[in-house]
Amino acid sequence: MKRYKAVFFDLDHTLWDYEKNSVETLTELYEEFELSKRPKPELKDFIETFDKVNTRLWANYNKGHIGREVIRDQRFKKILAVFNIRNDVMARKMSEEYIKRCPTKTHLFPHAETTLRYLQPRYDLYILTNGFNDVQDEKLRRSKLKGFFRNIITSESSGHRKPSAQIFHHSLDIARVSAHEAVMIGDNLHADIIGARNANMDHIYFNPSRSGHKESVTYEINCLSELPNIL
Ligand SMILES: [Mg+2]
Protein backbone atom coordinates (compact mmCIF):
# COMPACT_ATOMS: atom_id res chain seq x y z
CA MET A 1 0.00 0.00 0.00
CA LYS A 2 1.23 3.45 -0.86
CA ARG A 3 2.00 5.34 2.30
CA TYR A 4 2.94 8.69 0.86
CA LYS A 5 1.33 11.24 -1.44
CA ALA A 6 4.15 13.74 -1.71
CA VAL A 7 7.88 13.18 -2.07
CA PHE A 8 10.26 16.04 -1.34
CA PHE A 9 13.76 15.98 -2.78
CA ASP A 10 16.74 18.04 -1.80
CA LEU A 11 18.61 19.15 -4.95
CA ASP A 12 22.33 19.79 -4.33
CA HIS A 13 24.34 16.63 -3.53
CA THR A 14 21.13 14.58 -3.78
CA LEU A 15 20.03 14.75 -7.43
CA TRP A 16 22.36 17.36 -8.89
CA ASP A 17 25.99 16.35 -8.44
CA TYR A 18 27.23 19.58 -6.90
CA GLU A 19 30.73 18.23 -6.37
CA LYS A 20 31.29 17.14 -9.95
CA ASN A 21 29.67 20.25 -11.44
CA SER A 22 31.62 22.52 -9.14
CA VAL A 23 34.96 20.82 -9.85
CA GLU A 24 34.34 21.14 -13.59
CA THR A 25 33.60 24.86 -13.20
CA LEU A 26 36.60 25.48 -10.93
CA THR A 27 38.90 23.67 -13.35
CA GLU A 28 37.76 26.00 -16.14
CA LEU A 29 38.21 29.09 -13.96
CA TYR A 30 41.65 27.92 -12.86
CA GLU A 31 42.77 27.97 -16.48
CA GLU A 32 40.88 31.07 -17.63
CA PHE A 33 42.02 33.25 -14.73
CA GLU A 34 45.54 31.91 -15.28
CA LEU A 35 46.03 30.54 -11.81
CA SER A 36 47.74 27.68 -13.63
CA LYS A 37 50.53 30.12 -14.60
CA ARG A 38 51.30 31.02 -10.99
CA PRO A 39 53.58 29.01 -8.71
CA LYS A 40 50.53 28.28 -6.58
CA PRO A 41 47.84 27.15 -6.06
CA GLU A 42 47.91 23.74 -7.65
CA LEU A 43 44.51 22.90 -9.11
CA LYS A 44 43.96 20.30 -6.39
CA ASP A 45 44.65 22.84 -3.61
CA PHE A 46 42.42 25.43 -5.29
CA ILE A 47 39.53 22.93 -5.37
CA GLU A 48 40.14 21.76 -1.79
CA THR A 49 40.27 25.32 -0.53
CA PHE A 50 37.06 26.15 -2.37
CA ASP A 51 35.39 23.20 -0.62
CA LYS A 52 36.54 24.27 2.82
CA VAL A 53 35.59 27.93 2.38
CA ASN A 54 32.31 27.12 0.66
CA THR A 55 31.24 24.54 3.27
CA ARG A 56 31.95 27.01 6.07
CA LEU A 57 30.03 29.85 4.36
CA TRP A 58 27.04 27.59 3.63
CA ALA A 59 27.00 26.32 7.22
CA ASN A 60 26.81 29.93 8.37
CA TYR A 61 24.10 30.67 5.82
CA ASN A 62 22.09 27.64 6.99
CA LYS A 63 22.37 28.86 10.58
CA GLY A 64 21.02 32.22 9.44
CA HIS A 65 24.23 34.04 10.37
CA ILE A 66 24.94 35.41 6.90
CA GLY A 67 23.00 36.22 3.73
CA ARG A 68 23.42 35.19 0.14
CA GLU A 69 25.47 38.28 -0.77
CA VAL A 70 28.10 37.39 1.82
CA ILE A 71 28.63 33.98 0.20
CA ARG A 72 28.94 35.66 -3.18
CA ASP A 73 31.22 38.48 -1.99
CA GLN A 74 33.48 36.49 0.27
CA ARG A 75 33.92 33.09 -1.32
CA PHE A 76 36.69 33.78 -3.83
CA LYS A 77 38.25 36.58 -1.80
CA LYS A 78 38.84 34.10 1.02
CA ILE A 79 40.04 31.36 -1.34
CA LEU A 80 42.55 33.60 -3.12
CA ALA A 81 43.74 35.04 0.20
CA VAL A 82 44.78 31.53 1.30
CA PHE A 83 47.30 31.65 -1.58
CA ASN A 84 48.29 35.25 -0.84
CA ILE A 85 46.51 36.55 -3.92
CA ARG A 86 44.85 39.78 -2.87
CA ASN A 87 43.01 41.02 -5.90
CA ASP A 88 39.43 42.06 -5.24
CA VAL A 89 38.63 42.66 -8.91
CA MET A 90 39.77 39.17 -9.84
CA ALA A 91 37.93 37.66 -6.86
CA ARG A 92 34.73 39.43 -7.90
CA LYS A 93 35.03 38.35 -11.52
CA MET A 94 35.74 34.76 -10.53
CA SER A 95 32.77 34.78 -8.22
CA GLU A 96 30.47 36.15 -10.94
CA GLU A 97 31.74 33.61 -13.42
CA TYR A 98 31.38 30.71 -10.98
CA ILE A 99 27.80 31.71 -10.14
CA LYS A 100 26.93 32.12 -13.81
CA ARG A 101 28.54 28.93 -15.03
CA CYS A 102 28.17 26.28 -12.32
CA PRO A 103 24.33 26.06 -12.53
CA THR A 104 24.62 25.36 -16.28
CA LYS A 105 26.46 22.09 -15.56
CA THR A 106 24.38 18.96 -15.81
CA HIS A 107 26.09 16.10 -13.95
CA LEU A 108 23.51 14.20 -11.90
CA PHE A 109 23.86 11.36 -9.41
CA PRO A 110 23.62 7.90 -10.97
CA HIS A 111 20.04 6.81 -11.68
CA ALA A 112 18.57 10.25 -10.89
CA GLU A 113 16.58 10.45 -14.09
CA THR A 114 15.35 6.84 -14.23
CA THR A 115 14.31 6.99 -10.58
CA LEU A 116 12.36 10.22 -11.11
CA ARG A 117 10.74 8.70 -14.17
CA TYR A 118 9.59 5.79 -11.98
CA LEU A 119 8.34 8.04 -9.18
CA GLN A 120 6.61 10.78 -11.14
CA PRO A 121 3.44 8.88 -12.14
CA ARG A 122 3.14 7.53 -8.58
CA TYR A 123 3.68 10.61 -6.41
CA ASP A 124 3.61 14.38 -6.44
CA LEU A 125 7.27 15.35 -6.49
CA TYR A 126 8.73 18.57 -5.08
CA ILE A 127 12.15 20.11 -4.69
CA LEU A 128 12.88 21.44 -1.21
CA THR A 129 16.19 23.28 -1.24
CA ASN A 130 18.11 25.87 0.74
CA GLY A 131 19.41 27.26 -2.55
CA PHE A 132 18.28 30.38 -4.36
CA ASN A 133 15.34 30.57 -6.80
CA ASP A 134 17.18 31.61 -9.95
CA VAL A 135 20.17 29.33 -9.40
CA GLN A 136 18.16 26.20 -8.56
CA ASP A 137 15.75 26.87 -11.42
CA GLU A 138 18.61 27.07 -13.88
CA LYS A 139 20.13 23.79 -12.62
CA LEU A 140 16.78 22.03 -12.96
CA ARG A 141 16.11 23.40 -16.44
CA ARG A 142 19.59 22.69 -17.79
CA SER A 143 19.73 19.18 -16.42
CA LYS A 144 16.20 18.53 -17.72
CA LEU A 145 14.77 17.70 -14.29
CA LYS A 146 12.32 20.56 -13.95
CA GLY A 147 9.41 18.75 -15.61
CA PHE A 148 9.40 16.05 -12.93
CA PHE A 149 8.44 18.45 -10.16
CA ARG A 150 5.13 20.09 -9.31
CA ASN A 151 6.83 22.89 -7.45
CA ILE A 152 10.24 24.12 -6.33
CA ILE A 153 10.38 25.32 -2.74
CA THR A 154 13.50 27.27 -1.79
CA SER A 155 14.65 28.94 1.39
CA GLU A 156 14.40 32.17 -0.56
CA SER A 157 10.73 31.69 -1.51
CA SER A 158 9.65 30.32 1.88
CA GLY A 159 11.62 32.71 4.08
CA HIS A 160 12.97 29.81 6.15
CA ARG A 161 15.85 27.39 5.81
CA LYS A 162 16.09 23.70 6.42
CA PRO A 163 16.33 22.36 9.17
CA SER A 164 13.76 24.87 10.45
CA ALA A 165 10.37 23.18 10.91
CA GLN A 166 8.70 26.19 9.25
CA ILE A 167 10.05 25.42 5.78
CA PHE A 168 8.78 21.83 6.09
CA HIS A 169 5.35 23.01 7.26
CA HIS A 170 5.28 25.54 4.43
CA SER A 171 6.11 22.75 1.95
CA LEU A 172 3.36 20.50 3.31
CA ASP A 173 0.90 23.39 2.88
CA ILE A 174 1.98 23.87 -0.73
CA ALA A 175 1.63 20.13 -1.42
CA ARG A 176 -1.71 20.05 0.53
CA VAL A 177 -0.67 16.97 2.48
CA SER A 178 -0.17 16.22 6.15
CA ALA A 179 3.23 15.31 7.60
CA HIS A 180 2.53 11.56 7.64
CA GLU A 181 1.66 11.65 3.92
CA ALA A 182 5.06 13.05 2.95
CA VAL A 183 8.66 11.91 2.84
CA MET A 184 11.87 13.94 2.55
CA ILE A 185 14.95 12.68 0.69
CA GLY A 186 18.28 14.40 1.20
CA ASP A 187 22.00 14.06 1.77
CA ASN A 188 22.33 16.44 4.69
CA LEU A 189 21.80 14.72 8.02
CA HIS A 190 21.21 17.99 9.80
CA ALA A 191 19.25 20.12 7.32
CA ASP A 192 17.24 17.44 5.50
CA ILE A 193 16.94 14.52 7.88
CA ILE A 194 16.80 15.96 11.38
CA GLY A 195 14.77 18.84 9.92
CA ALA A 196 12.17 16.46 8.48
CA ARG A 197 12.14 14.39 11.67
CA ASN A 198 11.44 17.50 13.75
CA ALA A 199 8.54 18.29 11.43
CA ASN A 200 7.22 14.71 11.98
CA MET A 201 7.94 13.75 8.41
CA ASP A 202 9.41 10.42 7.36
CA HIS A 203 12.80 10.78 5.72
CA ILE A 204 15.27 8.93 3.55
CA TYR A 205 18.91 9.69 4.19
CA PHE A 206 20.86 9.63 0.92
CA ASN A 207 24.35 8.65 2.01
CA PRO A 208 26.38 7.74 -1.09
CA SER A 209 29.71 7.98 0.75
CA ARG A 210 28.38 5.72 3.53
CA SER A 211 29.41 8.14 6.28
CA GLY A 212 28.95 6.84 9.79
CA HIS A 213 26.37 8.49 12.05
CA LYS A 214 24.30 7.87 15.16
CA GLU A 215 20.95 9.30 14.08
CA SER A 216 17.92 7.09 13.85
CA VAL A 217 16.45 7.57 10.39
CA THR A 218 13.33 6.20 8.68
CA TYR A 219 15.38 4.85 5.75
CA GLU A 220 18.92 5.13 4.48
CA ILE A 221 20.11 4.56 0.91
CA ASN A 222 23.50 4.73 -0.79
CA CYS A 223 22.16 4.97 -4.33
CA LEU A 224 19.06 6.58 -5.83
CA SER A 225 18.25 3.29 -7.58
CA GLU A 226 17.21 1.93 -4.14
CA LEU A 227 14.24 4.32 -3.95
CA PRO A 228 11.78 2.09 -5.84
CA ASN A 229 12.31 -0.55 -3.11
CA ILE A 230 10.98 1.94 -0.56
CA LEU A 231 8.50 4.03 -2.54
MG1 LIG B 1 22.01 18.68 -0.27
Which compounds are bound in this model?
magnesium ion
Shape: elongated
Fraction of residues in H or I helices: 40-55%
Rg (C-alpha, Å)? 18 Å
Distance between the termini: 10 Å
Relevant CATH superfamily of the largest domain: HAD superfamily/HAD-like
Per DSSP E runs of 2 or more residues, the count of β-strands stands at 6
What is the topology, as strand order, of the major beta sheet?
Answer: 3-2-1-4-5-6
Distinct helical segment count: 10
Second CATH tier, the architecture of the largest domain: 3-Layer(aba) Sandwich
Helix-strand makeup class? alpha/beta
Integer tally of domains: 2
How does this structure look, described?
This protein is of the alpha/beta class and about 230 residues long. The chain has two domains: about 5-15 and about 110-230, Rossmann fold (3-Layer(aba) Sandwich); about 20-105, Putative phosphatase, domain 2 (DNA polymerase, domain 1, Orthogonal Bundle). The protein has helices at about 20-30, 45-60, 70-80, 90-100, 110-120, 135-140, 155-160, 165-175, 190-200, 225-230, and strands at about 5-10, 125-130, 150-155, 180-185, 200-205, 220. Helix 6 links the parallel strand 2 (about 125-130) and strand 3 (about 150-155). The structure holds magnesium ion. Magnesium ion binds near residues 10, 12 and 188.
